């Protein structure tokens, strides 16, 4: 029994201090002591009482240190510390995860603990006699709680997410809520406190940090502009602070359709054509207003608002293709009216009231329908004719006249005839041109009082189909798609050709007049406009070239070239041949003249390229003059080998030695240079041992009549010069030859 004056603690481990048990886990211990109890009468009573006072043990999870973790210490107040008590531990993990020092009561965790695997362990502590193992205290249970750390990132267990939201939704419209879970302890710290943020998907969407609700963040998001958005949401623990762990998930958001777009015609004007021979109910053409909305939001209705063809045409809708189909309501006549105009409206039958201010949800276009001329047969002015003729009237008696007219615009002449099966005995004859009927012989009333005959009228020169045209398209032609052919507006009213759309992607070209003349025009260009009925409709204009050909009486084509037209201008074949001959002769003269001019520019005498004696070598540098002792050595002109009658080659060694010619003689120191050069030239020209490429060519003549005169110092010996060259004697042996040439002149003059 515990008296009322006793202080009771909650079941748990008793701590020597009143601080947090987490901060002093290693100092926690069991305390066994005795309490004194006072009676009501003031008498002090002594009774033995168990002294276990508990608090909870705590151990940090995921501890990876080198030593076992000290969880706490068990201690009994009957333990005197002399080894008279032994502590034992039993329960969950005892001996494997938790071990106890039986003398000190210290409890250690020997393994790494994971709170997510097991959050707490229930153990039993007992103090026993070390010798007899008899309990000194009754056993008591206590709990070891695994203290949580932030070792688990948030996870989205249901991702990825898929959501839908209507286009044009207001800002803040809820789209979807995403939820992440964290395996850490939500009751301890911020390890499991999650904060949501958006990583991808801005500025279109936002997310509430605490709830994970995704909302629209941008107004007027249009599905027709973009239908799907990929959003990435992040959940981060530790309240979103730095160091927290995070996890992400993907959210694919699709915008659903609303009726926010009106129908729209691709063209402001549509061109169609109908032949006058069409019957009511036949289709004239199709057009479509495009509405980008889906399902019922994209449905379109059509109607004719106004136009001069409202009574002749009607409009329906093809429910499969959502196209407007214009059909013929009454027959049309080309000769009466050639074109009609309709104003067609397209509108949405289902309008969203939220977007009605964005309207109107309708569009209009103009449809121009041209009536094509059909080659209709002639029509008689009366459905029947009654004529009277006297019996026994002579042959050729006038009976009457029938009259038919071509209802087409060309008003071709009519040819009349009586089918023989209606007048087997041929009592009557008709003029093919004017329709006058006459008898062929006298008629007998008593034999046959009535004659019923038929007359046929046929157009003369009625329009003929010249050819058939067709078109191709690189796009794939779907079912019900075809080409529509019509003449371009600039030639729509021409009087030569017409076109008929065959409604099968082909068209027929008609000649609507006769009497084409190649003299006036031999080529016609007919622009044809081709339209498809695709979405959007496309068109192109192509030019058909029609050439007028000459034909014979049997309609056989003779020529489509231009020669007959040129010949008819007055030039005969002989004249053309003469003109061509003159042109050829003139060309020949010009070619010959050019050839002669080129020949005059070439040299008269051609030498072989191997003859190097005639090669001209040009040097751009000039000599240094008479004082240039390095440029040229005059001594080379007096080759001592040449004086002996032999001129060796420097490139090849001659095989034979020729004896010295008798006319060669040594040259003294005093010699006329001009005679010396002439002698050497003569020797070189007449020497059979010297090939042409080893010839010496020396030119000492520089021309006459020059203002500067001769610049050669070699000719100075022949001129009357007042210059004194005695100083050459003092220049040394290198100038001895020059001193001899120019100094000897003075000696000769002195001797004379």
Automatic annotation (TrEMBL):
Gene3D superfamilies: Cadherins, TCF3-CBD (Catenin binding domain). InterPro entries: Cadherin, Cadherin-like_dom, Cadherin-like_sf, Cadherin_CS, Cadherin_Y-type_LIR, Catenin-bd_sf. One of its GO terms (molecular function) is beta-catenin binding. One of its GO terms (biological process) is adherens junction organization. Residues 76-156, 157-265, 266-380, 381-491, 483-566 form the Cadherin domain. Residues 1-26 are annotated as: Disordered. This is Cadherin 11, type 2, OB-cadherin (osteoblast). It comes from Cyprinus carpio.
């Amino acid at each position: 029994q515990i008296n009322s004056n006793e202080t009771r603690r909650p079941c748990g481990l008793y701590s020597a201090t009143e601080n947090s048990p987490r901060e002093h886990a290693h100092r926690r211990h069991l305390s066994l002591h005795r309490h004194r109890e006072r009676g009501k009468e003031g008498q002090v009573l002594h009774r033995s009482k168990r002294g276990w006072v508990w608090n909870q043990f705590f151990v940090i999870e995921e501890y990876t240190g080198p030593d076992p973790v000290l969880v706490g210490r068990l201690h009994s107040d009957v333990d005197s510390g002399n080894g008279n008590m032994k502590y034992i531990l039993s329960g969950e993990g005892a001996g494997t995860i938790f071990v106890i020092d039986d003398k000190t009561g210290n409890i250690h965790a020997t393994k790494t603990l994971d709170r997510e695997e097991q959050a707490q362990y229930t153990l039993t502590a007992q103090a026993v006699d070390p010798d007899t193992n008899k309990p000194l205290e009754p056993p008591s249970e206590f709990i070891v709680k695994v203290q949580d750390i932030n070792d688990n990132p948030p996870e989205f267990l249901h991702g990825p997410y898929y959501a839908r939201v209507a286009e044009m939704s207001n800002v803040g419209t809820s789209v979807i809520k995403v939820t992440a879970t964290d395996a850490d302890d939500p009751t301890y710290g911020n390890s499991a406190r999650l904060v949501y943020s958006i990583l991808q998907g801005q500025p279109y969407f936002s997310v509430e940090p605490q709830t994970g609700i995704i909302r629209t963040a941008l107004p007027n998001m249009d599905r027709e502009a973009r239908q799907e958005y990929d959003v990435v949401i992040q959940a981060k623990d530790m309240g979103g602070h730095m160091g927290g762990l995070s996890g992400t998930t993907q959210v694919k958001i699709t915008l659903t359709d609303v009726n926010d777009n009106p129908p729209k015609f691709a063209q402001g004007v549509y061109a169609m054509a109908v032949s006058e021979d069409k019957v009511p109910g036949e289709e004239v053409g199709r057009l479509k207003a495009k509405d980008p909305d889906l399902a019922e939001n994209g449905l379109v209705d059509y109607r004719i608002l106004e136009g001069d063809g409202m009574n002749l045409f009607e409009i329906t809708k093809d429910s499969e293709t959502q196209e407007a189909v214009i059909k013929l309501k009454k027959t049309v006549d080309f000769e009466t009216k050639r074109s009609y105009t309709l104003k067609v409206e397209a509108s949405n039958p289902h309008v969203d009231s939220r977007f009605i201010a964005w309207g109107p949800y309708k569009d209009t276009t103009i449809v121009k329908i041209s009536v094509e001329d059909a080659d209709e047969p002639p029509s008689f002015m009366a459905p029947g004719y009654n004529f009277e003729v006297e019996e026994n009237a002579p042959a050729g008696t006038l009976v009457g006249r029938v009259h038919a007219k071509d209802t087409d615009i060309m008003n071709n002449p009519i040819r009349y005839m009586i089918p023989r099966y209606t007048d087997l005995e041929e009592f009557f004859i008709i003029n093919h041109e004017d329709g006058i009927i006459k008898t062929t012989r006298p008629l007998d009333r008593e034999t046959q009082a009535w004659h019923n005959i038929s007359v046929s009228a046929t157009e003369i020169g009625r329009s003929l189909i010249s050819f058939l045209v067709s078109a191709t398209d690189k796009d794939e032609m779907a079912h019900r798609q075809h080409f529509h052919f019509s003449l371009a507006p600039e030639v729509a009213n021409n009087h030569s050709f017409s076109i008929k759309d065959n409604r099968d992607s082909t068209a027929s070209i008609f000649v609507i007049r006769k009497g084409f003349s190649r003299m006036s025009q031999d080529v016609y260009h007919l622009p044809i406009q081709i339209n498809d009925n695709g979405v959007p409709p496309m068109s192109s204009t192509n030019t058909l070239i029609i050439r007028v050909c000459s034909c014979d009486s049997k309609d056989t084509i003779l020529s489509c070239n231009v020669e007959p037209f040129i010949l008819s201008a007055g030039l005969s074949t002989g004249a053309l041949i003469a003109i061509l001959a003159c042109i050829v002769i003139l060309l020949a003269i010009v070619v010959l003249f050019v050839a002669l001019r080129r020949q005059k520019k070439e040299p008269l005498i051609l030498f072989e390229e191997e003859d190097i004696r005639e090669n001209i070598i040009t040097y751009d540098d000039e000599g240094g003059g008479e004082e240039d002792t390095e440029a040229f050595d005059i001594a080379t002109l007096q080759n001592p080998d040449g004086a002996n009658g032999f001129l060796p080659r420097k490139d090849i060694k001659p095989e034979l030695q020729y004896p010295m010619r008798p006319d060669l003689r040594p040259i003294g120191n005093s010699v006329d240079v001009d005679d010396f050069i002439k002698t050497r030239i003569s020797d070189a020209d007449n020497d059979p041992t010297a090939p042409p490429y080893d010839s010496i060519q020396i030119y000492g003549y520089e021309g006459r009549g020059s203002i500067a005169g001769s610049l050669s110092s070699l000719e100075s010996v022949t001129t009357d010069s007042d210059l004194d060259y005695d100083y050459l004697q003092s220049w040394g042996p290198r100038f001895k030859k020059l001193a001899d040439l120019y100094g000897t002149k003075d000696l000769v003059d002195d001797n004379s």
